């Protein structure tokens, strides 16, 4: 996400929301199967993760042109509730958008840096506030009319009801959103839930989100929202293999308008598709 995961900044009607993600950085994972007390190891304050996936989807939009991506990051959580982290993914949307416009901009990686504070105000209910910086090391940035780097502020409420866990999160863009001109103040609302079936380490996953893109298209009276706002959803399953290894499969879709988020072949990058990934946490 990440998030959202631009073509509009290049004079096209397409705008690719990228991410990072905080949905990756803050994603709910299925709890591991119970082990004997003597075998339980308390996680340390520093953790790392690496993921292989067949497509990098952020807020439902492909960031890798429907191709595989490698991802990974680090997180440090202090006992006081403060945390910081970094998450990264291979991407192609910046170079794809530039080549479509006859330019040669390149940014093969997305780097997300975040920090915040979590507080358990009641058993099973954790409030979370923070800031996330999406950074794209880009060559030939002049190919874009707006900088794709994006800063978002977020607030989330995590919840636990026995086997059901999840969160409701609101993210607000303090800058323009992923290179879309005049889009400061855009926001994304995310509701995610996971259910531990208690069988074979399987958890069911569901998500729905709404991306609102603020402002107007440059030098026009057309609202960005009428072109680029959309809803995305996901239904999937996660398998916990133990020892920090998990796999997931999900169907992802959006109602993004045709022509708003497209690759050089003019395919809708928000079209429905299956996402398969394997993650190792250390």
Task: Please outline what is shown here.
With 282 residues, the chain is mainly beta.
Protein model, in words:
With 282 residues, the chain is mostly beta strands. Helix content is 6%, strand content 46%. The chain has helices at residues 22-25, 93-100, 224-228; strands at residues 46-53, 57-58, 61-62, 69-77, 82-90, 109-122, 125-135, 150-161, 164-173, 187-196, 202-212, 230-242, 245-254, 273-281. A hairpin with a 2-residue loop joins strand 12 (230-242) and strand 13. The two termini are 21 Å apart. Residues 1-41 have low confidence and may be disordered.
**Succession of helices and strands:** HEEEEEHEEEEEEHEEE
Q: What is the CA-atom radius of gyration, in angstroms? A: 19 Å
In which order are the strands of the major sheet placed? 1-4-5-6-7-8-9-10-11-12-13-14
Mean pLDDT: 86
